[in-house]
Specification:
The chain has one domain: OB fold (Dihydrolipoamide Acetyltransferase, E2P) (Beta Barrel). 35% of the residues lie in helices and 19% in strands. It has five helices and seven strands; from the N terminus they run H-E-E-E-E-H-H-E-E-H-E-H. The N and C termini lie far apart (53 Å). The N terminus and C terminus are likely disordered.
């Protein structure tokens, strides 16, 4: 009887530990004094970062910058991006280069990463996680949208400060509308008469929105 009880308790404790670990992994964590690591796989929304002596790969949440020329094999995704901005593929890759350069410049000084450790997938041996990037002056996702170099799209959890998905999306779409009116970035060459509307939320109103993101470095 004692042996049977023990055999039942041990798997239960293992499951309980797994549930606790999962809950902790979903909590926001702040990484301060981060530094950008040079990598040929870095682009506008995905990059290698050093924090506390460790290397990480982070992928921006809430937004999606154009794929670089090196990633043109993702034809479905690059077509979606070009259609979103109302531009051709050649212009799309030019915007990708500009987005990569802006991100590199913004992250040339120490910055802060907020992450809930959600898996963003990727081709690297290192895991890639979604994150929020804040410099001394800017929120990187917001800046990319303001410059017309990113679409409002992708993994969208409630913010660390409690801002809901829908409220933050409205903020980004307002920044996008202003960038469109000022003909910033890709919007300078668009054939659209107005910026695209964001598809309606699916699932719970304030739950994280997920979308398929192709693997990157």
């Amino acid at each position: 009887m004692a042996r049977r009880s023990a055999s039942r308790i041990i798997p239960f404790l293992g499951l309980l530990g797994l549930l606790v670990a999962t809950a902790v992994a979903g909590e926001w964590q702040q990484l301060s004094d981060c530094q950008l690591i040079e990598s040929k796989f870095n682009d506008g929304d995905s990059f290698h970062v050093r924090s506390g002596g460790k290397e990480f790969i982070f992928r921006l949440g809430y937004v999606d910058t154009p794929e670089t020329l090196a990633m043109q094999k993702y034809t479905e995704r690059t077509t979606d991006q070009a259609n979103y901005f109302g531009i051709n593929k050649s212009t799309l890759f030019e915007m990708a280069a500009q987005a990569s350069e802006l991100t590199k410049r913004e992250l040339s000084r120490p910055f802060t990463v907020w992450t809930d450790w959600t898996d963003a997938k990727g081709n690297s041996q290192l895991p890639r996680y979604f994150g929020i990037i804040q410099t001394a002056d800017n929120d990187l996702a917001e800046l990319l949208v303001q410059r017309g170099l990113s679409r409002v799209y992708g993994y969208s959890p409630p913010r660390p400060d409690g801002t809901s998905v829908s409220d933050y999306r409205k903020k980004l779409k307002q920044l996008e509308a202003e960038a469109f009116a000022a003909r910033e970035g890709a919007w300078a060459q668009t054939d659209r008469k107005s910026p695209p509307k964001y598809p309606p939320l699916s699932g719970k109103k304030d739950g994280a929105e997920k979308s398929n993101t192709p693997p990157a470095g």
